[in-house]
Amino acid sequence: MKALITGDRAAGADGLSLSEIPHPHAAENDVIVAVHAAAFTPGELDWPGTWVDRAGRDRTPAVPGHEVSGVVVELGYGTTGLTVGQRVFGVTDWARNGTLAEYVAVEARNLAPLSAGVDHTIAAALPISGLTAWQGLFDHGHLEAGQTVLIHGVAGAVGSIAAQLARERGARVIGTGRAAQRDAALELGADAFLELEGGWEEAVGLVDVVFDVIGGEILDRSAQLVRAGGTLVTIAEPPRVQPADARAVFFVVEPDRTQLVMLERKLRDGKLRPTVGAVLPLSDAVSAFNPAKRVAGKTIIRVVEGS
């Protein structure tokens, strides 16, 4: 099968190539998915799991990409809950071959059913961003109706989903970003938008939850904005500055089928809209990792035309 594979670790994106590799094997509780569309995280070539397995052994050449939408074509021994021919979407393990390929082996528990009316290209943009937003806001931030959340990077892949989920929950949403992102942020459901320049903290005031995807100085300065009993949540780095009388949480997203099902339902019903920035064929997947060609939103690799 065709797949995008890594080369020398030192070469990074320059070492990627489209090659023929063996068809994946379905281990116990796995399924093989015929990939219709896939997505990746731009920084994943820096992740240890891209290069070594869980025992620390080199696993190159490896296939990047950890988000998939496609059709089940094979069941591993003991697999339950999914059937051959079923449309699915979800997340693959960080330390196994990924989704930028024609086929991928995935633990069945990391996939959820995908409704017939949902485009694979749109579904592939949702798993990591959707789970990250859900877990950050609700599992860690405990956001409730009537509260206020500050979302840094509100127009990005994660931030845009977080804004929509928070607004639907009944929270007030303050988003931040670059000036050019204002209209997009307000369209996504932000009640207010602030540029990350100058004294933006004064305009925010106190909030119940800060959801940060940027880190650094922005994260440091946000600690003072969390009211007592609130939560500072970030996926960028462990917080260096702790909020007074509030919690600070750094987390890494985890696969969760129940949450994927809830996200898919919202997607199907038109209550959630992932931000797709570009759609490229698998033959152009190497170029998708070029920083100069990055666009706002998720870059989707379409493996099957018409998906």
TrEMBL record:
Molecular function terms, GO-annotated: oxidoreductase activity
Domain Enoyl reductase (ER): 12-301
InterPro entries per UniProt: ADH-like_C, ADH-like_N, ER, GroES-like_sf, NAD(P)-bd_dom_sf, YIM1/Zinc_Alcohol_DH_Fams
Gene3D superfamilies in the cross-refs: Medium-chain alcohol dehydrogenases, catalytic domain, NAD(P)-binding Rossmann-like Domain
Domain of life: Bacteria
PANTHER family: ALCOHOL DEHYDROGENASE RELATED, RETICULON-4-INTERACTING PROTEIN 1, MITOCHONDRIAL
Protein name: NADPH:quinone reductase
Organism of this sequence: Mycolicibacterium peregrinum
